Amino acid sequence: MRQSRRPHRIALIVLLALISAALMAPLIAPYAFDALDLANRRAAPSSGHWFGTDELGRDLFTRVFFGARVSLAIGLGSALLSVMLGTLVGATAGYVGRWADDLLMRTTDAMLCIPRLPLLMIAAAFAQPEVWLLVVLVSCVGWMETARVVRTSVQSIAARDFVAAARALGVAPWRVVARHVLPGTIPVLTVATTLAVGRGILLESTISFFGVGVQPPTASWGNMLYQAQTTMSTEPWLAVFPGAMIFVTVLACNTLGDAIGAPRQATSRSR
Amino acid sequence: MLPIVGRRALHALPLLLIISLVLFGLLHLAPGGPLSTYLENPNVRPEDIERLRKAMGLDRPLGVQYLAWLAAFVRGDWGYSYADGRPVFDRVMERIPATLELIGAACALALTIAIPVAVVAASRRLVDRVSAPLAVAGISLPVFWFGLLLQLVFANALGWLPSSGRQAFDGGGFADRMAHLLLPAVVLAAALAAGWSRYLRRSMHEALALPFVAVARSRGISEARVTWRHALRVALPPFVTVVLLDASMLASGAVVTESIFAWPGIGSLFTESLAKRDYTVLMAFLMLGSVAVLVLNLIADLAVAWLDPRVSSER
Q: Which ipTM was obtained for this model?
């Protein structure tokens, strides 16, 4: 079944646009990050303030731009770190096998049993983390899916003749894995990373929404919603726009992840 | 059948051990350990903290503490809430019916949407064209934002439904209970229905491509019967597994949904306790949630063995 490629292109363009907008936020945002416009506090969206203003008269459009830096950084950072962790666990389990496989995969199964979001919320409440530590915490609850797919992929690649040949030539085990086995898992890893970006952004925004993630004055899409929920009925725009940004970003990540994953699924089905 | 039950139960034991170790580790990772709430209180002297540490057995070796904690947990002795001094077990148990009501309603709603949509989408491209993007949107939707939006539209702007709680202050009848249940159930169901329909559509697609389906078709069996009776029978066992394995997602979803709609279940108990850093309640929630997921995993294995005779005859 051939699917239209258009949604995937749009998703890629949206993501690239978001990332570049976040990088250039200070240059292209219409106002300074903490500029107050006391005459226009709690103003509804208008031509002067596209997304409206908050209770201090700060321009929401500007804050959404700056929030993008934090949210995207956490999403991308946690995706890379969690995929690295997952690859380490999955590749070791899949290549070494036996007791290492049992130990690591039982741990992975156990971690998957613990409800992810509450676990992360407790850890964040304890650690009161800076942004970098938040990235680490999000990765610590998000590596399991990668570990599983990498293990399966490594197992099937390690059983191939060229790996046996490399071993027979006396190549050191870690080198066999790094040079011969892992390159074969790159398609799997690409999908895993893309999906992990979306998941990371969702997790960060959710825990920030509950007040235990990114702390003010740093703005992230999640903690903007945390501040907005008390005034939801009078100033809905404060909640609508940051949430819409989360939705669009995660949607783009998932669409892209599907697109990269789809051809692989098609081939594995026909095999 | 019985050997499978035994084997799976044996498989679950080490998982339980690892889970409890992780959670115990988390508890001790907290700044100041389990006593941190007292450390921040200027009215509690260092001597008192030392005395408490001894009284609570926190000066014993970690291994001993872990075993004592585990033994107490199994007995239903989950400690006392820091917030109101009541036993954690009681506080958790009184919230469970509300959570089960919400989760039950959400799952029923999600299944009644996901199954027909997925089955039809697997054979009709037009339905697929519409439902596939909707499903991706559904899994990308931040649950808390979706909840806030529905609240904004249906409770605040239109005033059709109550914005929070489980019933009106004066008790309320059946209609009132349903009105309170609707929004939170829809929010929780949306993400589930999206994920489940995606999965079932894919496995239906694979099932419809199997040779025996082609044989059934060539024998003149109607397309509807082939789809619903033959292919669905094959696609269902893995789907049941996925539905049951999503239990851990349910725990996360319940926390978010209950908090937004002030639904008086264990999810909102969790966020209330999080705000007060009420460790004992938080740990009980995590432990209970993990055990529930583990048990549902077991049930999933057994359900598949029951639905798919090939599994139970293995080995």
A: 0.84
